[in-house]
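Lab notebook, bench 4. The sequencing result for the construct came back, and we need a structural model before the next group meeting so we can plan mutations. Quick request posted to the team channel:

Model the 3D structure of this chain.
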Amino acid sequence: MFDDMLVAQIRRLNDAWPELVAPVQFAVEDVPPSDPAPWEATPRLGSQSFPAEHGIPPRIVLYRMPLQSHARSRMDLQFAIRDEVVLRLAELYGRRPEEIDPDWGM
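Done. Here's the predicted structure in token form:
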């Protein structure tokens, strides 16, 4: 179910922003790494983005267990996935999340 929700968000955003979404690789992991990188002041529990570097395309990783554990319903989980994907896309491209999806955070 989680993966299907993520795919639905990727498709929806790709329809509106193909130039932003198409180059990005998306992945799902169960939990974030237990040892955050030294430059990370606070660990990111819901998702993380990685800019393109050394021939590797930009990536967004969503962490299934933290997102599912905070969701009280299927709708909560859909909104959480949407918000994480939009937030990380905005982060990768130096935009505000509201530019990518006006409903972000609602």
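The chain has one domain: 2-31+45-100.
Will bring this to the meeting.
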